């Protein structure tokens, strides 16, 4: 089953971008929370761990992943519907 996320690109408050960077996790972020799906060799994404991170102070695990997310996002291309 293939999901098409392009219609979400036109929803107010959602920002979608694509990139060509090799990553070792997938990050979905909303304000001061994020979901991090760790990529594990030999395990499909649906079977790999997902961490629910919340900002609890400066310099914590959330900020580490948020910094990575922001750096990749700066080099990415916006997704447009259609």
Characterization of the model:
With about 80 residues, this protein is α+β, with helices and mostly antiparallel strands. It has one helix and five strands; from the N terminus they run E-E-E-E-H-E. The chain has one helix at about 60-75, and strands at about 15-20, 25-30, 35-40, 50-55, 75-80. A hairpin with a 2-residue loop joins strand 2 (about 25-30) and strand 3. The longest helix is centred in the C-terminal third of the chain and has 15 residues, at about 60-75. The two termini are about 20 Å apart.
Write out the strand line-up for the largest beta sheet, numbering strands in chain order.
Answer: 2-3-4
Question: What is the helical fraction, as a range of percent?
Answer: 10-25%
Task: Let me know the average pLDDT.
Answer: 85
Q: What's the end-to-end separation, in Å?
A: 19 Å
Concise summary:
The protein is α+β, with helices and mostly antiparallel strands and 82 residues long. 18% of the residues lie in helices and 26% in strands.
Summarize the topology.
Elements: E1 17-18, E2 25-30, E3 33-38, E4 50-54, H1 61-75, E5 77-78
Antiparallel strand pairs: 1-5, 2-3, 3-4
Q: What distinguishing features does this structure have?
A:
single chain; 82 residues; two-stranded antiparallel ribbon; 3-stranded antiparallel beta sheet; alpha+beta; 1 helix
């Amino acid at each position: 089953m293939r999901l098409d996320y392009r219609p979400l690109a036109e929803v107010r408050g959602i920002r979608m971008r694509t990139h060509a960077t090799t990553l070792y996790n997938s990050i979905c972020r909303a304000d001061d929370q994020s979901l991090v799906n760790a990529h594990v060799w030999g395990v499909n994404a649906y079977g790999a761990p997902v961490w629910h991170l919340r900002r609890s102070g400066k310099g914590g695990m959330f900020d580490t992943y948020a910094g990575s997310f922001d750096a990749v996002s700066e080099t990415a291309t916006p997704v447009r519907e259609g």
